[in-house]
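Help!! Second protein's tokens look totally different from the first
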Amino acid sequence: MADLGYVFRRIARMDFGRMFKVIDKCHNKCGRNKVSLFFDCVFTGLIYGAGYMDFYQFRMYDMNAKEKKTVITRGVNNSIVRKYNDKKSIYKFDDKIKFNEIFNDYMNREWMEVKEDNADDFAAFCGRHAEIIVKPVSQSCGVGVEKILTTGEDLKALHQRLFKNGQILVEEVAGQHDAINAIYPLSVNTLRIVTLKNQVATALFRIGNGGNVVDNFNHGGMVTRIDVDDGIVKWPAIDKDTNVYEVHPYTGYKLIGTKIPMWEEAKAMCVEASKVVPEVGYIAWDVCVGKDRPCLIEGNNYPGYDLYQLPVHREGNMGLYPHFKEIMGDD
């Protein structure tokens, strides 16, 4: 059974209006009676630690008890985070400047911090890189990330704007491998490689879409699963609106069968990086497949479990919890 303390805290903060809208969506998907779905959703939350969005997104209304038990739900994911990620150390991942300092050896690109008094350094950086990526240091899900062409810009004014907006992390644009660029050229299409106890637990491929310059699932991107053993995409991609893609709509690229370049190097890099801060043992790494080597983009100390087990990527309607348990062993 799920941690009852966690369940009751979730109930106290629950948006019941949104929950009933989600039940409506479930009904539209499967045709089941809404009252039956409501009680199934509540029961699934109590027993398996699933939020109502888990219930909808993982189609748990179409799963039996044996199948539900295999899903990494919000409650299960939280328990793994609590077990392996020391609260006193997670700031090393939350603060993007601190992260870049610690993991600089794996970044494989130039970066700098915008400060009030370093406009000249910023101008020199832009002189070396005509195109830059700017990020706020504490946001997530692609919020506040911009790609800027600096040619012809008033660099002093741009420096002031970035400092004022808190977009103080400036990075050289990570050049991606031609094979990845061919799939969707407007964004850096990143790998999401999840490590648990210094082992690769699962891996995903995030791809931009719709003219967006970020590949984030919450900003119009799509995601598919990578076979960890051989680095091949064997499933279609899906976006947040549950549209499924076997072919990328922007380029016409066939997704299934894609072989990720330098896959073994990317895995090895993440395993090595996972040992740098041993107090944080459950990490989702975002990796760019560069032209000649993988580049670390960032590490997430609260891995987004919502992407792991989407129905279109499941085998036998089973989730990944049994596999994660194998890695955790007797801990």
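Here's the second one for comparison:
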Amino acid sequence: MRKLWGLIAGLAVLLTGSAAWAAESAVVFMYHRFDDSRFPTANTRIDQLDAHIAELQSGGYTVWSLPRIVTALKNRQALPEKTVALSIDDAWMTVYRNAWPRLKAANLPFTLFVVTDETDRGGAEYMSWDQIRELAASGLVTIGSQGAGHPHMPALTQASVADDLARAAQRFQAELGAVPKLFAWPFGEMSNDAEQAVRAAGYDAAFGQHSGPAWFGATPFFLPRFALNETYGEIERFRLAARTIALPVVEVSPPDPTLKVNPPLFGFTMAHEVPGMELLGCYASHEGKVTTETLGPRVEVRMTKPFPTGRGRINCTIPTLDGRWRWFGWQFYVN
């Protein structure tokens, strides 16, 4: 009988643990273009966006602004079940023309990450400063920065990254009267040197383009976002991502996402015990499923092939008994 009650108690922990640990993380989505079929890898169709909005309105989610989520994560405040934020990169005109009317009508907040050089350049492809000011004045939209020139920041010196950020700050101050506090890494690419420049520039947090929920134990300067496009924007995938909870990962190695050894000796430590570790699977973007070895709280991941030049990603997941996924993603840069 004692063994039976022990089994029941263990199952109860597995079944209720997802909701409890979900309070430690939030899902952030990333969009680029809307209804622009010329660029399917960066585009979200209107029928997809409409389905996302309907899901957020009817699926029991709590949609918060990104600054509110960042504050909660940094202060380790419990988040509501299925907390979600929306972000949009690059301020393409299709944001203003196709997404903004729908998101405004649904009263859904989002963060728009602006590249100041592109906005200054103008033309039919990009939103104007007047349009950006209109969104900022609505109370629904937070303006974030992607810097001035949208460079590959790990390929620059720390001084060059600082110059790019300073140039962007001058333009934001001139056009909006304030400098954003949130940053998005161009192309999702980060290095430790570039991170120091972003910190020194006064940002509160920075976001990449690797998948997974943002967890309150993670560094606030390389937070993940689920990217959405025509391929990865169907409602089934959106719903799956929106319901993920974080794998509580610390002590990632190598600590710099810009690789000096390739393939990297990749590993991480679980901050606390997670049920189902025997079901952990890790997948590299260039290789598929890779080898993992668990040594107590430490997980070592080994790849047999080097990442190609540019960006590479790895995702580690564990299924839960209530149909959700614990998820940790990471992005590397190879110069």
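Reply: Different proteins will give different token patterns, so don't panic. Residues 90 and 206 are 15 Å apart (CA to CA).
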